[in-house]
Amino acid sequence: MANTILVTGGAGYIGSHACLELLQAGYQVVVVDNLANSKLESLKRVQEITGKSLAFYQVDIRDHDALADVFAKESINAVIHFAGLKAVGESCEQPQMYYHNNVYGTLVLTQVMAESNVKQLVFSSSATVYGAAEQVQYTEDLPIGAINPYGRTKAMVEDILRDLSASDSLKPSQSPWKIAVLRYFNPIGAHESGRIGEDPNGIPNNLMPYVTQVAIGKLAQLSVFGDDYPTPDGTGIRDYIHVVDLVKGHIKAIEALQSEKFADGGCKAYNLGAGKGCSVLEIINTFEKVTGRKVNYKMAPRRAGDLAEYFADPALALRELNWKVEKNLEDMAADTWNWQVNNPQGYN
Ligand code: NAD
Ligand code: UDP
User: Fold this and answer.
1) What's the predicted TM-score (pTM) here?
2) Which domain holds residue 178?
3) What is the arithmetic mean of pLDDT over 71-85?
4) Pair (281, 261) in one structural domain
5) Domain total of the chain
6) Which of the listed residues 43, 124, 245 should we mutate to test ligand 1's pocket, taking the one with most ligand atoms within 8 A of CB?
7) Nearest residue by C-alpha to atom 19 in ligand 2
8) Residue with the nearest Cα to atom 33 of ligand 1?
9) 196 three-state secondary structure
């Protein structure tokens, strides 16, 4: 029988890679996206690469009736929920927009899911929910302490999902919620075909797209934000994860939700990261080695709100989802570059 996954935000960077892997793994895919930060071209290419088709609805997840129509038309088994706004700086400038989109949007989605009795959900959370912790390797049991509006939308949605799952015990006659909250570390890279990838609007905020745009000559110089951190080379350390590894974690999560492990329902958070940190200078050096291009950079002051160092403890995801990363930093650099060179203007 068909196993149909609704992917919200499926036209976006991570969502499009998820659609590709889902189709290749034999799932039926239905995408809901309002195209606020993406182009339909990504899904056209996903279908070309896989030779399989998916259903697309240009719908805003905050539109209850339009979303309910999608659930009425398609027989959906589970939802992977990527739709959301994700720029930290913008979230500080326009917090209402972020809470409305990310928090209210998820309330509407879960409402429609409940009405349709679809109760398997994988949610895109983020390592930013941890805020500053004493240890640099984050385990899932650390307290939540997001430090900006974007991070707080993720933390709030996590709370809502845990409350929803807890409410099952008061309604034992109903089928329980089965929810996996996936806390991503730093996703980079692109599909090895070079046909889909990250297509940021305007000047990128994140390190990897900035590095590639400097290497290809679209931007003049990278600023390395801080060289006086208490790290071996003084630059900030993060846990970079290849986007294809990341989306495979979502398929593992769906498998777990549909297995005996979640027979009684529940809401559980998992870190998705490589489990090791990498500095800004290591990223630049690896990128230069793999691509043979120079990255023009200068040292600059620390960026407000940045932590010196953190990375994932991904042991729980290995134990319970049977997932771990398979790709290394060289793969991430090569695949990002392949996407950049083949699509200098992104999807335009
Ligand atoms: P993206 O912007 O490329 O994709 C998000 C997609 O959601 C876009 O296609 C956008 O058009 C769509 N969307 C936004 N609001 C919508 C709405 N109200 N209704 C319907 N569609 C809507 O971002 P991404 O990098 O692919 O991120 C996907 C998810 O993962 C987001 O929830 C993001 O917060 C989370 N996340 C991303 C990162 C990262 O570094 N990229 C890290 C941690 C978590
Ligand atoms: N960074 C940098 N220059 C840039 C963008 C980012 O030095 O133009 C650094 C940043 O300070 C952090 C790391 O690169 O140490 C990753 O930043 P990014 O914005 O990609 O992700 P974050 O971890 O902040 O979510």
Assistant:
1) 0.98
2) 4-188+239-272
3) 98
4) no
5) 2
6) 124
7) 206
8) 86
9) coil
CA of 122 to the centre of ligand 1 (A): 14
Query: Which tens digits make up the pLDDT trace of 317-333?
Result: 999 999 999 999 999 99
The predicted structure's pLDDT at residue 172: 83
Q: What token pair was written down for 291?
A: 């691509």
Check 150, 184, 240, 310 and give the catalytic one.
150
Whether residue 261 is contained in a domain is answered as: yes
CA–centroid distance, 206 to ligand 2, in Å, is: 5
Q: Confirm whether 347 is domain-assigned.
A: no
pLDDT per position as a tens digit, 279-312: 999 999 999 999 999 999 999 999 988 999 999 9
- Residues 243, 130, single domain; the answer is yes
Is 224 part of any domain? Answer: yes
Helix extents (H) in the chain: 13-24, 41-50, 64-73, 88-93, 95-98, 105-115, 149-166, 207-215, 243-257, 280-291, 315-316, 329-342
More confident residue, 27 or 132: 27
User: 59-63, 87-91, 236-240: lowest mean pLDDT where?
Assistant: 87-91
Question: For residue 239, which ligand has an atom nearest its CA?
Answer: 2
Active site residue 98: no
118 CA → ligand 1 middle, Å? 22
Please check whether residues 294 and 326 belong to one and the same domain: yes
Average pLDDT, the chain: 96
- Within this chain, do residues 218 and 245 fall inside the same structural domain, yes or no? no
Ligand nearest to the CA of 303: 2
- 96, part of any domain: yes
The CATH number given to whatever domain includes residue 227 is 3.90.25.10
